[in-house]
Amino acid sequence: MRYRFTHEHLQRTLQATEPDDYKNFLRMDNDSFETLELIRPNIEKQDTNLRQAIPASQRLSITLRYLVTGMDLEDLKFMCVVAPRHLDLIIQETCEAIIRKLKENIRVPRTTEDWKKVAKEFERRWNFPNCIGTVDGKHVEIEKPSNSGSYYFNYKKIFSIVLMAIVNANYQFMMVDVGANGRMSDGGTLKNTNFWQLFSESENKLNIPEPCELLESDKKFPFVLVGDEAFQLTPNFMKPYNKAVLTDERRIFNYRLSRARRVVENAFGILSSRFKIFKKDIGLHPDKTRKVVLAACRLHNYLCEKNKNKYIKPGDIDIEEPNTTVTRGAWRQGHQLLNIERVRGNLANEAKRVRDDFCEYFNGNGSVPWQNNCLI
């Protein structure tokens, strides 16, 4: 036999006797794997007179094992008995197929009603009304590309590309942008995305809902994205008040915003804990690394939808206690994706007014019973 393990072997052994081991091996159960085989036509190869083609299920298993373990191709070859250069080709082709076939499971809402559904879920789960997404960026560590100089060299003195994402209230990616060089800041990377160019245009090509009154308020509030201090405050993008100017009211605003913002932190944490390719520097060219990262993000959403209770367990994510203290999720243990460098920027008066309006609302008619615990 040309390779040591096949998916059929996994089904006969692990799935039949140790289903948990099977799930850990590929980060999904057999039903999820079989559904994912919809990519088979894109990766299936024909046998020739000279050699037998590696089956599509095996190509998918190899790629999933690579993403799940982060094994070097030199180490993976001993498990598969496939030469590293062929493993590289298999992984790239399979990642491309995953990206194409699962392209609809990461998408920006297309209608006003779709955006309102996202906002309702943020309000229901995280008590931040009119929030249409939470934003953050992380460094994906890579080995220094040949002849790249300091192009990918970031502020932590490692080489990386940037993964920028917008996440909904259920830890699912709505937008990902991968590949910017590691020297860029969060705000700079976001502004260079196609999404931000559309988001910033006055024509409202993204169909963001018009500002509306909140419950028991006669003021109109815009629909906003939320992020941390790395981003620029705008009328449609909220970030925390600086610690140097905090009052009790502003602390409550920061607390309410942090409840929503933790969703994107946990989405990245789940991604990196399930796919350990993110736990070390990736020894591929940045263009190939981009495909690997995009495929992992699409698999994350696929598993969130297909089998969320098995993919995300309670102890994996941050849990907020009634006194507002946070029990940290298991993903925070060990190596984590590196944060993007923080930058300073000027704040426009209109943006500050919108943030102050939200602050006033959270301390008045929009308050929740337990929020003052954050002041203790």
Automatic annotation (TrEMBL):
A Pfam family the protein falls into: DDE_Tnp_4
Chief location category: nucleus
GO cellular component terms attached to this protein's record: nucleus
Keywords associated with the record: Hydrolase, Metal-binding, Nuclease, Nucleus
Signal peptide: none
Domain of life assignment: Eukaryota
Names of required cofactors: a divalent metal cation
Location(s) in or outside the cell: Nucleus
Gene Ontology molecular function terms on file: hydrolase activity; metal ion binding; nuclease activity
DDE Tnp4 domain boundaries: 135-301
Annotated family: Belongs to the HARBI1 family.
Official protein name in the record: DDE Tnp4 domain-containing protein
